[in-house]
Amino acid sequence: MKKIFITGASSGIGKSLALAYAKKKCLIGLSSRRIEILNDVSKECKRLGGIPFVYELDVQNSEQCEIVSNTFIKDADGVDCVIANAGIGGDDQIYSGSSKSINNVLKTNILGVTNTLMPFIPYMREQRNGSLVCISSVASYVPLPFHGGYASSKIAIRMIFDSWRPTLERHNIRTISICPGFVDTPIVKGPARKLPMRSPDKAAEKFIKVIAKGKNTYVYPWHYKILIFIANIVPKWLYNYVIRTVFHKPIN
Ligand SMILES: NC(=O)c1ccc[n+]([C@@H]2O[C@H](COP(=O)([O-])OP(=O)(O)OC[C@H]3O[C@@H](n4cnc5c(N)ncnc54)[C@H](OP(=O)(O)O)[C@@H]3O)[C@@H](O)[C@H]2O)c1
To answer: CATH assignment of 3-246, given 3.40.47.10, 3.30.530.80, 3.40.50.10190, 3.40.50.720?
Structure first.
């Protein structure tokens, strides 16, 4: 029986991943800050045939992350896969005179990922097996006006995985970066909600297959690869001209 630990399991992609693993009769560690909602997700997991454990966790708190990772390893008697999924959006508040908003995104989306994953690595190294997963984003390939914090946080975690991969591979630990485009969850706000979006359940089913295969980096859905290709060949001056002309204010 596979033992999977997920952050941000109360909503969106994390919740859908939890339910999809429950259908596969896995043992699942569900964590996030909103414990009442997690308890509902836990009931649903049980109904689907999984064995859930619930942990209240703020990924910005590194001590809490260490305690919860050890507790999960004891509760589950091991760990096979850790999915650092918790993340927040939000614009940089570029004219606010304060770094509060952008720093909150950076803390959750970068330090939250390292806080989540690091405590599991010694255990995985010892057992010579495991998968570490981060939910990066297509935004890690394209500069986003007013969302520099978000875009850079998603590049950072992908780059951390690219840097760790050859080292951790020696211990049979896989590092999988998943880069979704728009998925229909509460993180997508404002006019972006009018864009085509994939359902979180469909996305989760695909992600589970990719995780099982141990793919290094996965862009979902595939057509975002075309957008990434175009974004990389368009001259920077042209990109900046379009952004300057079209986007004057934050989009959400
Ligand atoms: N949806 C998209 O279009 C899309 C695209 C690319 C990448 N992503 C990434 O996918 C991941 C999941 O997002 P989502 O779309 O599923 O959004 P979501 O529905 O808003 O879920 C975000 C999850 O993160 C948790 N979370 C936020 N801050 C946290 C903290 N400090 N400590 C612990 N948990 C925290 C939330 O739980 P609590 O509030 O209960 O703590 C919630 O469960 C994020 O990393 C996001 O950047 C999403």
So the answer is: 3.40.50.720
How far is CA 143 from its chain centroid? Answer: 19
Residue nearest to atom 44 of ligand 1 (CA): 87
Q: pLDDT tens string for the chain (252 positions)? A: 999 999 999 999 999 999 999 999 999 999 999 999 999 999 999 999 999 999 999 999 999 999 999 999 999 999 999 999 999 999 999 999 999 999 999 999 999 999 999 999 999 999 999 999 999 999 999 999 999 999 999 999 999 999 999 999 999 999 999 999 999 999 998 888 888 899 999 999 999 999 999 999 999 999 999 999 998 899 989 888 888 888 766 655
Q: Do the Cβ atoms of 166 and 182 come closer than 8 Å?
A: no
CA of 82 to the centre of ligand 1 (A): 15
Q: Is the CB of 29 under 6 A from ligand 1?
A: no
- Dist. CA 184 → ligand 1 center (Å): 12
Closest CA to 83 of 22, 15, 25, 182: 15
- Pocket lining: 10 vs ligand 1, CB cutoff 6 Å: yes
